[in-house]
Amino acid sequence: MAKTNDKNQKISQQTVRASASGANSELKYDFVKIAPLMGVVTLLLTIAAIFLITFKGFNYGIDFAGGTEMQVKFDKPVTAEELRGALREAGVKEPGVQRFGGENEFLIRIGTPEAENENAQNAQLTAMITKVREVLVQKFDVKPEGVGRVDTVGPQVGSDLKKNGMLAAFYSFLVLLIYISIRFDYVYAPGAILCVAHDAIMILGIFSLLGREVNIQIIASILTLIGYSMNDTIVTFDRIRETAPEHRDRPLAFIINKAINDMLGRTILTAGSTMLACIGLYVFGGGVISDIAFTLILGIVIGTYSSIYVAAPLIIVMEKFVPSGGLPHTELQRA
Questions:
Q1: Which of these, 101, 69, 89, 91, lies nearest to 139 by C-alpha position?
Q2: pTM of this prediction?
Q3: For residue range 256-285, what is the model confidence (pLDDT) as tens digits?
Q4: Nearest alpha carbon to residue 150 among 119, 107, 111, 113
Q5: Residue 260, Cβ density class (10 Å: 0-12 exposed, 13-18 middle, ≥19 buried)
Q6: Which CATH class is domain 30-60+158-334?
Q7: 150 backbone dihedrals φ, ψ, rounded to 5°
């Protein structure tokens, strides 16, 4: 009789091991296992991004800083350094020169000169633009049709645009927070909110680090990416909710892992196809289009990462601090 019990016990243990092995085989990748490590890395990177934004600031475009932007095309090869030297000789302090489009096409940025009032600033700026045109004709033989566009934004207008742009971003973020609060309960909402904040902070931190220009188009791109990331987070959360009833007896970490693995193919296809389009725009678009495409590429990578390692793992954190009655997974286990 004892031998029979020992045999039954061994069979039972083998069954448990096989069951555990089958559970692990259902998951291709264990994302939750390294979530604590990725959480520390994410926290450090976010702090670094906030530090850069606070102390280094941004390289604002003429939309926000004011000034003049000229698009010039040369008939012969010209280097950026030669163009900067000619502009300094024309009296332009710290001219901005950037390749734009073709090989011999440049974008010239001229800051707003200091003066007693706005009328004096406009007069000095007009005289400087005229002087720059003369230098371009004399030194580089630029034809009139070689100067494509000339955009001028006064300092007051630039200040107003910056203020309105920041307010638009704030109101959009506020509406998203309201939507998140309505769409999710207090278990899921913190992860979604932190995911949105993380994406915006990281993108702005990278722009500050690289010294890339921040203008109205970039702000619009960041808001677009926040919506893109939020959609990915919502899909992941919905998959977690759908998976929970099917695995009532499994821990929450397993459910989250399985949901992310189930959505992995969809995420790769969606993010990959969008990424290919953005890379094409970045390589061949030139100018403002390349800047927008660069922002979108950053956002796709950061948004996909945050949906997996910021939003989803925070549900496990909430399980430890929120009363058990508020967790849908706990309710399912008790049902």
A1: 89
A2: 0.75
A3: 888 888 888 888 888 888 899 999 988 887
A4: 107
A5: buried
A6: mainly alpha
A7: -130, 110
Q: CB under 8 Å, gap of 24 or more: what pairs does 169-172 form?
A: 169/219, 169/222, 169/223, 172/223, 172/226
Residue type, 7: K
Q: Identify the CA nearest to 156 among candidates 65, 219, 95, 58.
A: 65
Q: What would the CATH number be for the domain defined by 67-153?
A: 3.30.70.3400
Query: Can you count the helices (H) and strands (E) in the chain?
Result: 12, 6
Torsion sign (Cα): 207, 208, 213, 216: positive
* Tokens read off for 204: 């702005």
Q: Picking from 57-71, 135-149, 201-215, which range would have the lowest pLDDT averaged per residue?
A: 135-149
Instruction: State the span(s) of the chain assigned CATH 1.20.1640.10.
Output: 30-60+158-334
List the one residue out of 313, 333, 189 whose CA is nearest residue 257: 313
The residue type of 197 is: A
Q: For residue 288, how far is the Cα from the chain centroid?
A: 17
225 CB-near residues (< 8 Å, 6+ apart): 199, 203, 295, 296, 298, 299, 300, 302, 303
How far apart CA 326 and CA 71 sit, in angstroms, is 59
Six token digits for residue 44: 């450090």
- The Cα–Cα gap between 312 and 235 comes to 11
Which of 51, 42, 24 minimizes the C-alpha distance to 307?
42
Given this model, what pLDDT does residue 279 score? 92
Candidates 71, 62, 65, 63; CA nearest to 132 is 71
